[in-house]
Each structure stands twice: as C-alpha cells, then as structure tokens.
Amino acid sequence: MALPEVYWDPHIPLPKLGPARAKVTVAVVALLCFINSYDGEFVFDDSEAIVNNKDLKPATSLSNIWRNDFWGSNLSSNSSHKSYRPLTVLTFRLNYLIAGGLHPVGFHVLNIILHAVISVLMIDVFAILIGGLDYDEKGWTLNHAPKTSLLAAIFFAAHPVHTESVAGVVGRADLLCALFFQLSFLTYCNAFNKGSDRDGRFSVLWVVVSLVLCAAAMLCKEQGITVLGVNAAFDVLLICNVNVYELGHRLVFGKNPPDLREILRMGLLKRLGLMSLGGLSMLYARWRIMGTGPPAFTEVDNPASFEENLFIRIVNYNYYYSLNAWLLLCPWWLCFDWSMGCVPLIKSATDWRVMWLLLLWCVLIGLINQALCSPDSQRRRTLTLGLVLLVVPFLPACNIFFRVGFVVAERVLYLSSAGYCLLLAYSLGHWCYRWIRYKKLTSVMLFALLCMYVVRCAVRSHQWRSEQSLFSSALSVCPLNAKVHYNVGKNLADRGNTTAAVKYYREAVRLHPNYVHAMNNLGNILKERNELTEAEQLLSKAVSVQPDFAAAWMNLGIVQNSLRKFEAAEQSYWNAIRHRRKYPDCYYNLGRLYADQNRHVDALNAWRNATMLKPDHSLAWNNMVILLDNTGNLGQAELIGREALKLLPKDHTIMFSLANVLGKLQKYKESESFFLHALRINPNAAGCHGNLAVLYHRWGKLELAKKHYELSLKLDPEAPGTRDNYNMLRRKLDQLKHSAP
C-alpha cells in the first residue's frame, strides 16, 4: 500500500512542518479567508431554508425534519425540490436552540469552523491519495508527501470558489457533506491493516462504518454518495495496485491475458460488492423518500436541459462544464446565481464559445492520457486519483443522470475543488522538480497566488455579508441575468426605495418577459403609487403565464377592486383561493371587497375564514369588530373583540376598536381601561387620544377629556372632528365656569 518515495515532494517551496504545525497552518489560512463573514446577515436562499423554515422552531415536532425537504416543504408536495437533508436541518435547529432564536452569528461561526476542520482533514486525505497508505510501528499513518499534501490543503482552504458554501448559511449542506465524505474515505482506509495488500485481510466492520458515514453524508447533501466512487478508485489503484491501462489493454486485445487471481485473492470483489450493495440500498431509500418522482424544474432554472436538439443540449452541457473548470482555475468571476439568461444558450456549432469546451476536452484528454499511459507509476496514480476526486463528486450536477435545477452553482464545486487542488499541487511539485533552477521564482509566484486567493476570499465573503452587497456585486458579472436585477430591486423595495426598485424590476421583465415574480412585485409597487392601469396589465400577464400563481391573482384582485371592477376582483380572489386553499390574506382582501359592496354577512364570513386559517390575523379581527360596530351589532362586536384579545393580548388596534364599542355600550370604566392599555403600547396614537377624550367627554370627566383632546391635536392637528369636539368642550367648560357661584 505504501508507494515509492514521492520524488517531487522535497522540491516544493514550502517548509517541512510536523503534522500538528501543518494542520494549525491550514486551519489559520481557512479562518483568515472567511472570518469576516462571521457577523453577516441571512442572505438569498437563507430566507427560505432558515428564516421561513418552521422546522427550525422548537414548537415544531422534531419528526418533521425527517418528513420535509431542506426548505421545510413536505416531500410529497409538487412544489418540493426533493432536497432531503435532515442532518443539515438538524444542525440549523441546534443553532436556533443554542442562540435562542434566529441570530445569524452562530450560524456563520459554525460554517467557518466546519470549513477549517474540513481543510485540516484534507491533509490526511491528500497524503493517502498521493503517498499511499502506510503505518509506523505504533500504527499511525505515515505521510510520504508532507509538502504536497500541505500545499494542496492550503489551496483548498483558501480557494475563493468556496465562499458561497462558507459565507452563505445554506452552504452548511456542502460543508457537512464534505466532512462526512472525508470521514467515510478515511474510515475505509482504516479497513486495511499492515500487510493486507498481501494476504487479502481487511476489516468488514470498518467498511460498514464507512458506508454508514457515506449515508450520513448523503443525509446532509445528495452528493455524499459519490464517496463510494472515490473509495473504489482508491482500492483499485492503491490497495490492489492495478495498472488500469495495462489491464484494459490486455482484456481488449487478449495478448498476455492478466492473471486476476491475485486481485481476487486480495478481496477486491468482496469490498466492491459491499459498497455496491450499500450504495444501491441508499439510492433505493432515497428514491422512496423522494416519492419515486424527480423534482420539477422550469426552463429558466436549466434551459439547456429543455433543449429538444440533442446535439445542442450536449454542447451546452459541455460549455457549462468548461465554466465550472474556469471557476476553479480563475475564481474571480463569481455570482450568487447563474440562471435566467446569465449564460445564453449556444445555438449552433459556429458560436465562438465552442472553443472553450474544445479546450476543456483537450486538457482532460491530455490529463487522462498521462494518468493512464505515463511510464511513471507515481504520476499515473496521482493524476488518476486527482481526476477521480475532481470528476466523481461533480457527477450528480452534470445533467447526465437527471436534470438539475441550475446552470452553474459554485457550491457544487466544494468537493470537486479538492481534486483540482491536488492536481494543482502535483503540477507545481513536478514543475519544481523539472525546473529546480527557477525555485525562487516559483516561490514568489506561489506566494503571490496564495495572497490573491486570501484577498479574493476576504472580498467575496464580505460581499456575502448582506443582500445589498451580494446582489449588487452580481450586476457586473451577470448583467443579462433577470434574477440578479429582480433581487436588487426586491432588496431596494424592502429598504423603502421603491423608485429605484421599479427600474430594476422593469429591467428584469425586459430581460425575461415571462418573469412572473418580477411582474407581480412591480405591479404591487405601481398599485401603491396608484398607477392602477399598468399594474392591472402586469398582474394579468403574470397569471396568464402562470395560472396557478396565487399571490398574483390576489394582487390582481386588489387592483381591480381599486378600479371598482368588483366582479372581476371577486373572481380573481377566488382563483387565488382555488390555487392556495389556506390563504388567509386573500380571505381578508375578499372581505374588504364585500364590505365595499355592503355585503356585510359575506365580509364577516371571509374575515372569519382568515382568522381560522391564521388565528393571529390582526387586521381580519379588527375589521370584524369595526364592521359590527358600524352596523350597530355592539354585543357581537364586543364578543369578537374579546375573543381576538385572547389570541392577541398586546394588539393595540383591537384594544382601540373594542374600547370604542364598550364606550357606546356605556361600559365607561372598562372602555377607559382598554384605551389606556392601548396608549401604553402606542402612546403616539392621535386617534386613540381623541377617542379617549370623547369617552371622558360623555362620561363627564371634562378635565381628562380636555387633556386628551389637546394631546391628540398636538400629535395630529388635522385629526377629523377632534378640534370641533375640543371647541365644544371648551365652550362647555366656560359655561360651567361662568355659572359657578
């Protein structure tokens, strides 16, 4: 299992560090690169996977984690992405419990620590893949390539393509998957003791433990199952010392047929059988959990996969591979999202971009040729295992076995980048061995490259600290990406800058005319600006493009109601409810429509439905109290108000409405109590001061009435009716003063 001396290792321009110092060095580099993301916000996909994910809340049953997908949706739902990652969600839940809520610092710190641990473990992984598996007298594994493994681990720790996985909290899935991937590989290595390559002995227990860790990796992210391919390649190339090219040549041409008895005696088939059985069992279980159906993606997620022409589809897939290779080679062109026109489809073989995929395959063929045919056995093994570690973890994202929901995703390169780092470290070592007279120049270039990596990581992780900086950074990288413009617009709108948001929403719709979410959000802003005709046009187009878009149907109903198109508005609301049965906000707006038409019973029923679906729907409760008050049903209004306050004991608007009802029922003391309680919660409510003054006025507490009229007018000098009531009170006080003896 131990290989001959790694001849290029001594020539790498790094100091030879002991195991502990090497690991500390790699950990420090990893922390240095990403430490400035520790206090970042929840950004981009974090909103759905963490902020809006009920599975993180202690009130939610822990069993939900095992039934729902990564985003908190039921796996049986048609809208589920089928991302089954319960162990990752469990760590999010632990973060929530430890921090006592959604405090992003704890989430980010754990991500950074995980990356540092993974980078440290990469030293052991690289040492085995490059220098073989060997032990000292005490049973500790020996590192026959200390400098190469250290350099490759430093490259991995500092590679900027990892920023999305480390600085984005949802990248936890990639980190945990990589951790269990490494543990599965290292555990598989433990199955072989001294001399096992000669007598065929190996520990079945350690192989089984490796399979369990593989399953854990798969429960963190689907990519974890690919460790079985790496384990198998390690077994064939290093444990059994098989020359794949020579074996294949003999099998194909039949000259000097190979003696396979030695390989069989070493137990290779038994181990491959165990791994195959374990892998198939995991895939079957995953298929059953997923509901035996793949996730449904749209054309905007992965346009090449919807291309009918097979040749064009293959060309575009290969172009995507070349883009991934470029991100590994030159990680300066980074973007949080690569869909929606960011990478235009190649439509013909004359497109100039075809040269990039040709270049990619020329390089790969050259590497494969060296990996298989080089007379240098050390080079063959290192290149082959480097290519295996580069390619095998990427296979689930390559569109060959199933359609994926993205064009390019930096996060899926987290594991594959380890293979690239191994190949890069080997190339540098081989260069130093061949061109030893340029060692100083190589040292300078290596130091410059590492400094560039660290700086790029620091800059990029800083961009991931907030949505504003993250989305804005993508405008220069993917100016044709409609989703980038949409997210910039949404962030601006959330911060109150709707004027600037409109510009970006319009650009998103221009780049992607059927972008329903951009049309919906733009329509909402135009609705608020009273540009109702254009808002109606946009929302009508959105629901025609996506007829089951419930939110757009509801917003269209609101606009049509404002345009006094009551029948059309009612139909739009019911369309929204048909596509989303549990839609309390839509029932609330439907109630407002009925109230505008004086259909009081229908309005009350709609608002009651809203409160049944969402018991803390304050607006629906309050509107029921107000409508019953206005129609003279004071007793029922009182009952509804008290019922609402049991559910919402700190809602000052409901207190205010109930206080008004109690005042009309001449329950002055109780009414006063609710008014005062509401004012303690919201002391600057001019209307509350004004109505409390009216109560005191009726009650005969004129000085208190005068005080609250004055407070109301101070807060809102234009409050309707308040000044008239105040003047009436002053006249009455003057009359009392003059009539006093």
What does this structure look like?
The chain is mainly alpha-helical. Among the domains are: 9-290, no CATH class; 303-448, no CATH class. Helices cover 66% and strands 0% of the residues. It contains 34 helices and no strands. Helix 1 (19-34) crosses helix 4 (104-131), helix 24 (550-562) packs antiparallel against helix 25 (566-579) and helix 32 runs antiparallel to helix 33. The longest helix has 28 residues, at 104-131. It is elongated, with a radius of gyration of 34 Å. 45% of the residues are buried.
Provide a compact summary of the structure.
With 741 residues, this protein is mainly α.
Beta-strand content: under 5%
Which blocks of ≥5 consecutive residues have pLDDT under 50? Answer: none
Q: Rg, please?
A: 34 Å
DSSP summary, beta strand count: 0
Which class of secondary structure composition applies to the elements?
A: mainly alpha
Taken from the alpha-carbon principal axes, the silhouette is elongated
Oligomer: single chain
DSSP summary: helix tally: 34
Rounded mean pLDDT is 89
Q: End-to-end span in angstroms?
A: 116 Å
Largest pleated sheet: none
Helix percent band: 55-70%
Which secondary structure elements does this structure contain, and how are they paired or packed?
Layout (H helix, E strand, L loop, with lengths): L18 H16 L11 H6 L34 H14 L4 H28 L14 H13 L4 H5 L4 H19 L5 H4 L4 H17 L6 H13 L4 H10 L7 H5 L2 H22 L20 H20 L24 H20 L3 H15 L21 H22 L4 H25 L3 H8 L7 H13 L3 H14 L4 H13 L3 H14 L4 H13 L3 H14 L4 H13 L3 H14 L4 H13 L3 H14 L4 H13 L3 H14 L4 H14 L2 H14 L6 H18 L2
Helix pairs in contact: 1-4, 1-5, 1-18, 4-5, 4-7, 5-17, 7-9, 7-10, 9-13, 10-13, 10-16, 14-15, 15-16, 16-17, 19-20, 20-21, 21-22, 22-23, 22-24, 23-24, 24-25, 24-26, 25-26, 26-27, 27-28, 28-29, 28-30, 29-30, 30-31, 31-32, 32-33, 33-34
Protein name: dolichyl-phosphate-mannose--protein mannosyltransferase
GO molecular function: dolichyl-phosphate-mannose-protein mannosyltransferase activity
Enzyme class: transferase
